[in-house]
Write a structure and sequence with these properties.
Helix content is 27%, strand content 41%. It is an alpha+beta fold. The longest helix is centred in the last third of the chain and has 30 residues.
């Protein structure tokens, strides 16, 4: 498969930042795992299918059933270790281009920064302001962050000698 062509997306850009209580390397591996279990961690109801996973590229699709039908999204993620990744996403309800970056804040703290553009399609049902969209995305990443931190704490307990 070839990388998706870059799509120019008009309209506002969005950005959020969070701090994870885990080292950068762990946070990067965790954030770029792209698992079918992500919906559960997020508290959402969608099905994720990972189509392809390579050293520098992951392709996956999400499918969500709604009362009005299905919402589908295809994500093409370019991994840029050790601390960045880029997503190009086309879906039934929106098109997204986004960049993610992690920065070390010390041995066990990582700054997460996401910047993206989004274009709605005619199937978009939920209209949000810029602030609402950023708050919604921040809330999702806070849930992921809590799961990431739990996994990091578990990994530390399992590697400590008794």
């Amino acid at each position: 498969m070839r990388a998706s062509p870059r799509v120019r997306i008009p309209g506002p850009s969005y950005a959020i930042e969070l701090v994870f209580a885990a080292p950068l390397a762990f946070s990067y591996r965790w954030c770029t795992d792209f698992s079918p279990q992500d919906a559960e961690l997020e508290g959402e109801q969608y099905t994720r299918k990972v189509i392809s996973r390579k050293a520098r590229r992951v392709v996956y699709e999400d499918l969500r059933e709604t009362k009005d039908g299905y919402l589908w999204a295809h994500m093409d993620v370019t991994l840029r270790p050790p601390n960045r990744w880029h997503v190009e996403s086309v879906g039934s309800h929106r098109i997204i281009r986004g960049d993610y970056q992690l920065s070390s804040l010390g041995p066990e703290r990582t700054l997460f920064h996401q910047r993206w553009r989004r274009k709605s399609t005619p199937l978009t049902k939920v209209k949000m302001t810029k602030a609402e969209r950023e708050n919604s995305t921040r809330g999702m990443w806070k849930k992921f962050g809590r799961a990431l931190e739990r996994d990091y704490q578990r990994s530390q307990r399992s590697t400590r000698p008794d």
